[in-house]
Every structure is written in structure tokens, then in C-alpha cells.
Amino acid sequence: TEEVLRNTEKLVFAGQVAVSIAHEVRNPLTTVKGMLQLANKEVRLRHYDLIMSELERANLMVGEFMILGKPQAAIFKLEDCGEILQEALHLFTIQAKLSEIEITQHLAESATILCDRNQIKQVFLNILKNAMEALLQGGNIHVLLDVHEGYQCVTFTDNGSGMTEEVLRRIGEPFHTTKPDGNGLGIMIVQRIMESHQGKMNIRSEIGCGTSVEIMLPINRNG
Ligand code: ADP
Ligand code: MG
After folding, report:
1. Which of 117, 140, 146, 165 maximizes the CB count within 10 A of its CB?
2. What sequence ranges are listed for the domain Histidine kinase (predicted)?
3. Is the CB of 186 under 6 A from ligand 1?
4. Is the CB of 171 under 6 A from ligand 1?
5. pLDDT (tens digit, 9 = 90+) per residue, 19-77?
């Protein structure tokens, strides 16, 4: 009875997630297909960057959902947080260039944290993706990496659309999205990963001004 209900809920949730994946992966694949179908070799070459960036995007989306499916598969190791951050930032360079978005960095202090490398990378990717989506051409994302009271702090500040109080209050609620092609799972995944890492997340946002998302991860003193 109660368990049947719980299982039904899980199935409905899995179904909704499956639809989101299908949707998010199909969009970049359709773009790539269209470009590869272009008759002329030179034209194809000219679109190489965009093709690569779209494939990267599809790959990124699949990674996001893998974490939802297999939360037990985490592998905790001592890692340099700044290195993981660089890897995540690297994945956005082409897209940022194409969207004329500037990403600036201040890497004050990197620390060793005990974490699942892929999951922390996914946290950074989800936050960066939201920042990119909130920005118009010419926008800026500033990334700050530093250490504060035993925590590695990573702050992502964008000068994009910002959020209303209601959106901010509901952030992390599964499937709550303000985007026509959003899935409303990105921040929920970030929250889950932060919980499993004993980390914290703070979000400040002002409509029309921008958003600042701060991630705090406990530093490993033995690292
Ligand atoms: P999705 O991006 O698929 O909508 P998320 O969980 O990543 O799902 O984000 C939920 C909602 O939070 C977004 O739809 C958006 O309204 C808001 N949001 C998140 N990050 C930002 C940001 N940097 N700027 C403005 N709004 C944001
Ligand atoms: Mg998102």
C-alpha cells in the first residue's frame, strides 16, 4: 500500500527524468545532424567549433542524469578543488565564446577536498550552465576560488537576469523551471551532491542585476 505508492512515485519521477534527458540530448544532436548534412565541406569545417560544442553539451547532459541514477557509485578521493574547477570551466570556453560571454577568474587559494571528482565537476557545470543561460550577449561570469574558515569556497557571480523571490524560494524543487526548455533538475542535483559532501550552498539574487551562487566544501587538513 504505502510502499506501492512510494514505488509509483519513484516510477513517475523516473519517467519525468527520462523525458528530460531525451529532450535535452535531442536538441544538440539535431543541431549537429543538420550541420553535418550541409553539402559543402568548407561550410562543415566552418561549423566545427559549434558541432563540437553541441556534442559536448549532449555529453554533459547525460552525465548530469547518470548521477541521479547511481548515487551510490560515488568514489571519494583527495582532490585539488582548483583543478576540478579548471576542468569545468574548460568545457564552457567554446560556448562562452560563441555566446560572447566573458568568464573572468580570481583563483586566490585552492585547497584539497575529499570528494567524488565527477560529482563536484557536475556541480560546477550545472551552476555555470545556469549562469550562461541567464546572460545575454556581452554578459559576464566571475568565478572566485578561495578559503574561508575551513571551507573551500567557490563563488560564481553573473550579471544576468536574476531571480524573483518566488523562483529563489522554490529553487531545488524538482522540475521547477522558468525556462521553455529547462528541466528544473540542475540545482536539485547540486543540493544532493553538496549534502553527500557535507558542503553548503548559498544563493543571492536580484532581479535585473544578477545572481551569485556560493559553494562551500570542507577542506581536508590531511591532504
Ligand atoms: P533549469 O536550469 O533546468 O531551469 P535549475 O534547477 O538549474 O533548472 O534551475 C532552476 C531555476 O532557477 C531556473 O529555471 C531559473 O529560473 C533559476 N536560476 C538558476 N540559476 C540562475 C541564475 N544564475 N540566474 C537566474 N536564474 C537562475
Ligand atoms: Mg539548470
Report:
1. 117
2. 20-221
3. yes
4. yes
5. 777 777 777 787 787 777 776 788 777 778 778 777 877 777 777 676 666 655 688 99
Task: Tell me phi and psi for residue 216, to 5 degrees.
Answer: -125, 125
Query: Ligand 2 center to residue 188 CA distance, Å?
Result: 9
DSSP assignment letter at 121:
H
Say if ligand 1 is within 6 A of residue 203 CB.
no
Instruction: Kindly state the cell numbers that stand for 127.
Output: 551552476
Atom of ligand 1 at shortest range from CA of 183: 3
ipTM > 0.85, yes or no: yes
Given a contact cutoff of 8 angstroms between Cβ atoms, the answer to whether 81 and 154 are in contact is yes
Q: Which of 2, 14, 11, 94 is nearest to 50 (CA)?
A: 94
